[in-house]
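Changelog note: in this version the structure field was regenerated for every chain. One regenerated record is shown below for reference.
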Amino acid sequence: MTGKSNTRSKISGICLLIMSIFLLSSTSLNANNQPQDEAHHEEVSTATLSVTEDAHNADKPVDIAAIAFEHILDAHSWHFWGEGHDAVAMPLPIIIYSSTNGLKVFSSAKFEHGHASYENYSLVDEKIVSSDPNESIYDFSITKNVAQLLLSAIVLLLVFTSMAKAYKTQGVISAPKGKQSFLEPLVVFVRDDLAKNNIGSTSDKYVPYLLTVFFMILINNVFGLIPISANLTGNIAFTLVLSVVTFIVTNINGNKHYWSHIFLPHAPKAIWPILIPIEVFGILTKPFALMIRLFANITAGHIIIISLVGLIFIFKSIYIAPVAVAFSLFIDILEVLVAFLQAYIFTMLTALFIGSAVADPNEDGAHTSDDDKVTAGH
């Protein structure tokens, strides 16, 4: 009962946090409304300016690079579609701590997409800056990537808690149904093929972490394929955190054989000054490779798709459109495969690194070196 109560409390707390975020955004946005007379005058001025801008930008070429980077980079508001005054976007909470003004919480709508300042703060290239050069700012805002991270966490919690409840009430005497029939093979695959094969007899200890990594990457890879969503797994900060956690889990659980292989290599002592720095450097290159691989693959796919679609607007030809759409569709389908593949690769390599750190040379089937592990993995 205590476990069920704690689970419900966690889910309720996360849902309350998300509701507070949207409530804060809506309240701040409504607080920014102006008196009716001022709004009327500004509406007339804005309409005039809009007509002038439209006439001026009619023949302006489309900046595909700007559109691509807008999609793959983080932002303080969630832009859905449209440009300028016709843009549809959801403001997100700005949470900053100032060395002179303390904690400040308001909506990103105050910045009007970077065209206005608020209380001496401005948004320049999605970075909050102060007009006071002596003021230090620490940004804890709920950005688009953070919002999607919270959303994906809530989705995973709801899905897996409902599955756990179904197993608890129905048992495992019948074949899985619904979402269970899709997710159960993935769970078994991570547990048996990735964890047990690469870690060994102690794999059950690390299965929860491997499952979390696998499904967190997978769901955000899939979300990233939606045009209006955030590119979370293509953000190097996200992949950095995942790789650092893997680095910590691997080295904290490393046994004496793992550390002796690094600091007491089985080689003539004369070459230890060369081998030991190489082994220590290898400890750092493993999480670095995890970070770059996931970041580069996901980001590259998004840029290619946006660039192919952008060819239609660059050439403005009916002959280019079918070719661009066909190639974009092909890459998009390929990205669905990559979404699963990258989740698998990251999880498999994580299990491989953990296995090399906890392997016991005296255990049957245990691998005695990283090279043997890599060979077995391939």
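Spot check on this record: The beta strands are 77-81, 88-91, 93-98, 102-107, 121-124, 127-130, 137-139. Residues 2-141 form one domain.
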